[in-house]
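Bug: C-alpha cell stream looks shifted between consecutive jobs. Job 1:
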Amino acid sequence: MNAHTTTGFPYRVSRVMDATAARAWEAYTTAAEWQAWFGAEEGSAELDVRVGGRWKCVLLGPDGGRYPLGGTFLEVEEGRRLVLSMAVPGAPDEVMGVTFEEAGGGVEVTIDQTNATAEECARAREGSTMILANLAAHVER
C-alpha cells in the first residue's frame, strides 16, 4: 500500500523481468513506448511524469471499443517508484503504486492498489497482472 491508500481491498502483484530497472522505468514513463505495450490507441498516450503531472490514453478493447483513461502522478521517485491516480469513466478514482527494483540480474516490478470493493479488487488485480505481462514482453525483447 502507499501513502494515498485509505481502506478497502488491497492487492499487490509482482513480476521479475529480464531487463534492468532503468529499462523498465523508461518503458513505463515514455509515452511512445508506454502505448505500445499498454494497449493504447496509437498517438493517444500523454505522460507528464512529475508530481502533479497528468497522464491519459485511450485503451482499445478486444471488442473494438475505445476506453479513455487518465489521472495524475501523485509521487515520482525517479527510476524507482510511481504513484498515480486512475480515473475510469463510471468508476471511482483509484490510486496505484508501481515500484521498480533490481532483482537477481533483472528487475522486479510491483503494482499495489486498494479498491473499494472485492469485485473491483479482483478486476484490478487481473488488469495489473496483464499490465506486468505486457511490460515484460516489451522490455525482454
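Job 2, same session, no restart:
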Amino acid sequence: MTTTIEQPSDVQDNSRFEQLLKQVAQCQICQSSLPLAPKPIIQLSTQAKLLIIGHAPGRQAHNMDKPFADKSGERLRSWLGLTEQQFYSEQVAILPMGFCYPGKTKNGDKAPDKRCYATWHQQLIAYLPHIQAMVLLGQHAQSAYLQRSINVTENAKGWQTHQQQMPAIWPLPHPSPRNNIWLSKNPWFSQELLPALQNHIRLLLPSAKFE
C-alpha cells in the first residue's frame, strides 16, 4: 500500500470528523472475537503532525483507557525523545492496527483484528492533513503501510530509504520488553536510527508547540 493521504472534500469540516470519531467509539465490529467489551483506544487530532501506527492496545492501556499507558509506552516515548505531555498532545496521533485489546496468547498479545484497519484507517487518516511523519511499530503496521515490507529487522535497517517521501516513514520494532533481545542484537538501532529519528521529531514538533 502507498502512504499517499487522500483527503475528502470536507476535510475542514470538524463536525464530520467528530461524527466519525463517535462512530469509532461505538464500533462493535469485532466484539465476538474480543476477550473484553469493545473499547477503541485511539488518539487523533486534525492538527497532528506525527502519526504512530502500532499493534493494538495492551491490557493496561485498556484498563486506563489511554494508548501506550505501560512499559512499552515508556520505551516508545524515550525512543521518540518526547515527554509524556508532548506524547499525549494534539501534535501526536496514535492509530493502532487494532483499536481494542485483542487478548493474549502464550507468546504475547494476539494479532490485531484486520477489520479495524480495513474499516477505519483510510477514513480517519484522511482527516489528518498535517501529518509529516509516520512511525510504524512492528510487522502488522509495516505490512500495511510499506510498499515493500520484508521483516521488522530489514524494514528498520532500510529506514533511510523512506525519508525522502511525504510523510516520512520510520519503521521500528515494537517497543515491548519482549524485544529486548532484538535490541541487544541490533546495536545500530540505538546508535544510528534513534538519534536520526529524535532529531527529525525535534524539528517537526518544536517545544514551543507544547507550551
